[in-house]
Amino acid sequence: MSLVLIMNFWMFICSLAGLCYGVHHFFRIKKVLYLQMITCGIGCLMYARLFFVIFLFTQGELNQGFHVGLLGIMGSFMFLLSANYGQMDGLVDDGTKTFFATRIKALLVPVLITLLYVFLLLKTDNLQIRIAAGLLTLFILPCSYYNFKHVIIYDVELGIIRSLRKYNILAVIYAFLVMFECIGTVLNIRPLYVVSCIGIGLIALMIIPVVKGGAGKWTI
């Protein structure tokens, strides 16, 4: 059994457990859409890793370029972005100059993510990998911006932002780990790849209970 198959099976099991936990607690009548979106993000991650496992088990090797599994990972970031963008972000940022400095500071994580992509870009001349990693990065950038913004921005009434900071920190770490997994895979850096995959699995397992504990302070 290959290392890549083992790591993806680990991430599949962890994300499946996280998804089941989220569905059990959040997909009921009158539950908050914010929590359901995060659960759907973990669901996308689970389906992506399931694709990896099945494909690796049946075919033995996965194309490093664009493939269906990559869409699932992109989908996970789309749902995490959807949770923070819009109404939730409007609660803490009214769009005025008051939070201009915070908006600038929040760009730090997207800039670092971009630098990781540039590093990968310089290390490979494979056009398929460059395009696939580039598309993945484009989905990660806005998601990481809002997650980090909600880590550093001032809190509002009821302590909504403070209660969700641990979740947003985990989401930021998830963004970096996916980039590190990509770099570790393409450049065949096994320690980086293994650590990244283990971390992604742990976050998939932890993120729903963490957001549940935080949201429990301001939801019924």
Notes on the protein architecture:
The chain is mainly alpha-helical and 220 residues long. The protein has helices at 3-26, 33-59, 68-84, 87-92, 100-105, 108-123, 127-152, 160-186, 190-215. It is globular and about 50 Å long. The termini are far apart. The model has no long low-confidence stretch (mean pLDDT 88).
Question: Mean pLDDT, as a whole number?
Answer: 88
Beta-sheet strand percentage? under 5%
> What is the number of helical segments per DSSP (H or I, 4+ residues)?
9
Q: How many beta-strand segments?
A: 0
Largest sheet report: none
How far do the termini sit from each other?
Answer: 46 Å
User: What are the secondary-structure elements, in order, as H or E?
Assistant: HHHHHHHHH
Radius of gyration: 17 Å
Structural class: mainly alpha
Helix content: over 70%
Low-confidence stretches are none
What is the global morphology?
globular
Secondary structure elements and their pairing?
Elements: H1 3-26, H2 33-59, H3 68-84, H4 87-92, H5 100-105, H6 108-123, H7 127-152, H8 160-186, H9 190-215
Helix pairs in contact: 1-2, 1-9, 2-3, 2-9, 3-7, 6-7, 6-8, 7-8, 8-9
What labels describe this entry?
single chain, mainly alpha, 9 helices
Short description:
By secondary structure, this protein is mostly helical. It contains 9 helices and no strands. The chain is globular and about 50 Å long.
